[in-house]
Design brief:
There is one protein chain. The protein is α/β, with parallel strands linked by helices. It is built from 7 helices and 15 strands. The protein has helices at 20-33, 54-65, 116-124, 136-139, 158-170, 184-195, 207-214; strands spanning 6-13, 36-42, 45-52, 74-79, 88-92, 112-114, 128-132, 142-144, 175-179, 201-204, 222-224, 226-227, 234-235, 244-246, 253-255. Strand 2 (36-42) and strand 3 (45-52) form a beta hairpin. The chain is globular. InterPro entries: Rhodanese-like_dom, Rhodanese-like_dom_sf, TrhO, TRHO_N.
Length: 265
C-alpha cells in the first residue's frame, strides 16, 4: 500500500445559515493542499469523503472544524493504495443525505449510539429488529448476519418502506437497531423512527467502517464486504481493500471479473 494516501469520511449535522457562502473557501482549501473527493453542504450541515496526505487532510479538517458547530466533526479514517478520487467537488444541496422528510432534524432527536464492541450482543438478541438502511446494491455485497434488507434503491425510499411494513416489522420486537456505512444515514433513520413513535431505537456508532476497523474478524458478525463511494469500491475487515470492481455504465459493484447482470444481462 502506498504510504500517505489517507481517506477521511466525515459528517456533521449543524445549522448553516448560508451554505453557499462556504463553498468557495472550502474548495480553495482542498485544492491548495491537493485533497480530492466530495463535500456536500446544506442548511443542515456537511457530509463527504476526501483523500490526501495526512498533512493535507489535517489542514482541510482544521478548516472544516472551524465552521459553526463543527468543532466535534465526526471523522473516520481509512487508507487507499492510490488516490481514490479524480478531482475535488464541493456541492450545495437541499440535504447532506437525502431522505425527503423536511421535518426530520437529527440535532433534536436520534437513536442511542452503540459502540462497535457492544453491537454483536445487541443484534444477536432475538427481540431486536436489525435493519440495514443502505441501498439494495450496497447490501448485495455484504451485511450483518440476520439483518433485514429493505431492498430500497435509494435512501429516499426508506420512510415509505417503513410506514408500509411497520406493523409486521415491529411484531414481537422490543427494539430496533440500524446501521449504515459511516453513520450519517442512521442519524436520519433513527430520528425518523423516533418521530414515528418508536421509542427504543439504536444505531451503530461510526457505522460499518468503524466496526470493521475495531472488531477482530474472528469475533465479527459481518458477512461479505462493505461498499464505499470511491474507486476502492469495497472494504473488508481491518478496512483493507475489497475484491469488487464497479460497472462503468451503471456504477453497481461487481465481483472482480464478473459481467454486470443489469447492463449485460
Amino acid at each position: 500500500m502506498a504510504p500517505g494516501v489517507t481517506v477521511a469520511a466525515l459528517y456533521k449535522f449543524t445549522p448553516f445559515k448560508d451554505p453557499a457562502a462556504l463553498r468557495e473557501p472550502l474548495l480553495a482549501a482542498c485544492e491548495a493542499t491537493g485533497v480530492n473527493g466530495t463535500l456536500l453542504l446544506a442548511r443542515e450541515g456537511i457530509n463527504g469523503t476526501i483523500a490526501g496526505t495526512d498533512n493535507a487532510l489535517a489542514a482541510v479538517l482544521g478548516t472544516i472544524r472551524a465552521l459553526p458547530g463543527c468543532a466535534d466533526l465526526d471523522v473516520k479514517f481509512s487508507h487507499a493504495p492510490a488516490m481514490p478520487f479524480g478531482r475535488m467537488k464541493v456541492r450545495v444541496k437541499r440535504e447532506i443525505v437525502t431522505m425527503g422528510e423536511p421535518d426530520i432534524d437529527p440535532t433534536l432527536a436520534v437513536g442511542q449510539y452503540v459502540d462497535p464492541h457492544d453491537w454483536n450482543a445487541l443484534i444477536a438478541d432475538p427481540e431486536t429488529l436489525v435493519i440495514d438502511t443502505r441501498n439494495d446494491y450496497e447490501v448485495a455485497i455484504g451485511s450483518f448476519a440476520g439483518a433485514l434488507d429493505p431492498a430500497t434503491p435509494s435512501f429516499r425510499d426508506f420512510p415509505a418502506w417503513f410506514r408500509a411494513h411497520r406493523e409486521e416489522l415491529l411484531e414481537g420486537k422490543k427494539r430496533v437497531a440500524m446501521f449504515c456505512t459511516g453513520g450519517i444515514r442512521c442519524e436520519k433513520s433513527t430520528s425518523f423512527l423516533r418521530s414515528e413513535g418508536v421509542e427504543e431505537v439504536y444505531h451503530l456508532k461510526g457505522g460499518i467502517l468503524k466496526y470493521l476497523e475495531q472488531v477482530p474478524e474472528e469475533q465479527s458478525l459481518w458477512q461479505g464486504e462493505c461498499f464505499v463511494f470511491d474507486e476502492r469500491v469495497s472494504l473488508r475487515h481491518g478496512l483493507e481493500p475489497g475484491t469488487h470492481t464497479r460497472c462503468q455504465p451503471c456504477g453497481r459493484p461487481l465481483p472482480m471479473g464478473e459481467a454486470c447482470p443489469v447492463c449485460e444481462g
